[in-house]
Amino acid sequence: MEMKRREFLVGAAGFVPFAGVLAAPAGERRMRLGVMTDTHVGKTVESCGRVRQALELFKAKGAEMIINNGDIADWHYPTGYQAYRQVSEEVYGADYHPQEIFTYAWHDAFAYQGHARSMAVADGPAAFEDARRLLKAPNGHTAEIDFKGYKFLVMPQFTGAKGFLTWEEYEAKVAAACKATPDKPVFVVDHVPPSGTVYNSYNWGNASTRRVLNKYPQVVDFSGHVHGSLRNDLFIWQKEFTVINSGCLQVWHGLLAASAPTRKQSYGVLTVDVYDDRLLVRRWDVRDQSEIDAEHPWVVPLPFVAETAPYPRERRKAAEPTPHFGAADRLAVAVEGKPFKGFRLTFPEVEKNTMLYRIEAQRKGADGNWGTFTWLEIHSDYWVAPKDRTGKVDFLFSAVYFEPDGEYRFAVTPENQYGVRGDAIYAEAKAPGEFVQAKTIFESKDPMNEMELCTAAEKPKRFVADAEGFYGPLKTGSVLLKLPEGLFKSPKGTRFRATVDMRSIQPEEGTFMTITLKDPKEPLGVAVPTSSPGGDSGNERYVLEFTRRDKNPEGDYNIALARCANCRVKFMRVKVERLEA
Among 49, 124, 271, 297, whose Cα sits 20 to 30 Å from the Cα of 115? Predict the structure, then answer.
């Protein structure tokens, strides 16, 4: 069959040693599961549109159990949970309804009874029980369910906190289930995936879950939380055990180095067929019930054998082809705007196996050779349904990276889902002399001496640079680079840009330290976070933009680094501008 879409070919190339799995006699299917996650419904029936589509798909496919892996509502919305149940009853009617499992997660405790989001863990037991009641759900936040001879362990997101399982109790439940059914998989239903497994789980995963489940190869962990598109193979993982993540049924941004990901929509869910000798996992788009990559479903042989399991990351990486531009593909660069807003880059999408593009901006050194002075990543269109793809990338490289009348070369390199890069295409361009005007309201060309880095705690601790001029290794997961008070005092609708030149050294590949602007009084940042990748980033520029939308024009913001434990960082320049309308 001709492959007409930008698919990942590891399903074809990577399964050669496991071809017998697909060719095996069908046998008797023991059950079919429908799995979705991160539905984030609002307060109304209308907000449950994708839930309705998912349930209609599960009904059409004959799912006997439906799992929602948590963040059922975007906040603890009583009417949202009731709307979810109403939609379910409208789809299935009164005569039959499949077995259900719900996992309750952080968002399901947000703003419970009007409390602050910081109270989510403390409110968890009561909030989750209230969600269960409103959903008419069969299970609470912790449950053991026997279904068709298989064990499903529903685990709370807040394991280890007051009112929830201790980690010793969590492990005891897993151990007991594995002992009771030694010849079958044990399905652990979590919200947060074990760390270092599926997509984005280095940042958003749980190290304690990974530590426990590493001991139990029978386990198949169903999870959510990380958000993303199921149109790649990073949502299934095997090494010591198996993790299957269903992405999200809402919006996602994703991981990109040195640039802020755009907001994207996801419509993906899973069906999982359980046989004695395998799991057969199919991915679906709920909008039209079309199967995602139908030629390459995920096939998990049972029982689990680490040496021959098909989904360890390194095994998949070695099998997947390297992405390449076509021989006739060209990069075009145009100056955009008078005054200058940036360089508009256009180029053809690579037809197969591309998840990201790395875009390098280069200038000539004293020796006359081109050298990269900054780079960033953007997503390909892999996450878009094939019928909606344009076949072309259109990207504006902001003027903030460039100097008036400067001469530059751009290099664009395709990268597959496992980080393997092909060859670059190049083009040169010259910046004009006139740039878009912005008012500089703060600048430090020596932030290591002129600014203060401190912990984000209520009683902050200030850091001191080491002999090499770095902060760290940091012993905390979040820090603030303090900006002057009153800097952002402005009316609603004012737009700001912060530019941070920084070098980071992270100890583990796969980690992504995030950078945003944050009010110390609020739990979340106001600018879409950008990220610094694992390893040594080199000198890199990070650009953060936001429009003031809050009702507090007096609020202050600082540059916030998160997921930075054990990282070393050095700041070379910080600049904040108020942008003209």
Answer: 49
In single-letter form, the type of residue at position 346 comes to: T
Rounded to two decimals, the pTM is 0.90
Domain limits, the chain: 29-319, 332-436, 439-579
Peptide bond into 460 cis (omega under 30): no
Structure tokens at 169: 């109790």
Residue indicated by tokens 């070393």: 568
The residue with tokens 């006359």 is 368
**For 439-579, which CATH superfamily applies?**
Galactose-binding domain-like (2.60.120.260)
* Paired tokens of 17: 């040693």
146, burial (CB in 10 Å: exposed 0-12, middle 13-18, buried 19+):
exposed
Number of Cβ within a 10 Å radius of residue 333: 20
Give me the pLDDT at residue 510, please.
62
Amino acid of residue 75? W
Question: Quick one: fold of 29-319?
Answer: Purple Acid Phosphatase; chain A, domain 2 (3.60.21)
**Average confidence (pLDDT) over 102-110:** 97
Mark residue 535 as left, alpha or beta (left: phi above 0; alpha: psi -120 to 50; beta: remaining): left
Q: What's the topology of domain 332-436?
A: Immunoglobulin-like (2.60.40)
Cβ pair 515, 567 in contact under 8 A: no
Give which of 290, 305, 296, 297 is closest to 217, Cα–Cα: 305
Query: Do the beta carbons of residue 499 and residue 400 sit within 8 Å?
Result: yes
Cβ atoms 324, 414 nearer than 8 A: yes
Distances (CA, A) of 572 to 2, 151, 450, 480, 538: 51, 54, 11, 16, 12
Residue range 23-47, pLDDT digits in tens:
444 589 999 999 999 999 999 999 9
Q: Phi first, then psi: what are they for 271, rounded to 5°?
A: -115, 140
Q: What is the CA radius of gyration of the chain?
A: 25
Strands (DSSP E) found in 435-547: 438-444, 453-455, 478-481, 495-506, 512-518, 530-533, 535-536, 540-547
